[in-house]
Amino acid sequence: FQLPSDSFKYLNWCDLEEHDVRGNQLLCPRVREGPSEEELFFRGEHHTLKKRKQVTETEKWQKKLQENWENCAELNLSYQDLGDLYQVENLNRILRRLIRVEKLWLVDNSLTDLSAIRLPRCKELNVNKNHFTSFKQLPKIPQIQHLSLSENNIRTLSGISALRHTPLESLTLKRNPCEFQENYRQLVFSSLPNLKTLDGVPQLPEDCSPPKIHFLSKLCTLL
C-alpha cells in the first residue's frame, strides 16, 4: 500500500505544515531548510512549492517550540550535504540550541569552525571527516569525555591545552597531520592529564615520560 508521503516522492522540496513531530524525537534528522522562493525561481524549481503564506510572529514562535532542540540528549547530524550557505546557517542555528545534548555526531559535514558554538553538557562528540585545522576551531565542550577528530586537517597540537581542564578520557586523532609529529603521544598525554586512551590505544608506560626536546646549536660565520 502507498505511504502517506508517496504523493511527494517526485518533488525536490515539499513543505509539511501540519504535523506533531518534535525535534528531540528525531535521532538522525536532515536539518537543511528548503530554499527560498527566489532561489527556487533561479533554479527553475519554483513549481515544486505552493505559494508560501506570510508567517506571523506567533507561528514562528510555535515552530520554534515544536522543534524543541533544547530537550535533545542524543543526536546524529552527520552527512548533511551542506551545499548552500543557508543550510550551514540552519545547522549552526540548531547547534546553538543543543544545550542539553550529551552525544552528538557531526561526521562528514565539511565543517571548518564551530568555535562560536557551546555544548555545555556534551560528553561524546564525533566530528570525523571534516575540515578542522586547529583545536581552536572546536566548539566549547567543558564536559567532554570522548572526542573523535579522525580525518581532519589538524597539523599541530597547538590549542590542545583548551581541553586540559575537561574530563576527557579518550581522544582520536587518526589520519591528521599532527599524528606524525615527533613525540606525538607523549605531547598529547602531557597536555591532557585525564586522558586514558589515544587513537584507540590505552596509555603506555613510555607515554608518561616527558617529551624529549632537542636543542640545535646554530653556527654563525663571520667574514
From TrEMBL:
<dbReference type="InterPro" id="IPR001611">
    <property type="entry name" value="Leu-rich_rpt"/>
</dbReference>
<keyword id="KW-0433">Leucine-rich repeat</keyword>
<protein>
    <submittedName>
        <fullName>Protein tilB</fullName>
    </submittedName>
</protein>
<dbReference type="Pfam" id="PF14580">
    <property type="entry name" value="LRR_9"/>
</dbReference>
<keyword id="KW-0677">Repeat</keyword>
<dbReference type="InterPro" id="IPR032675">
    <property type="entry name" value="LRR_dom_sf"/>
</dbReference>
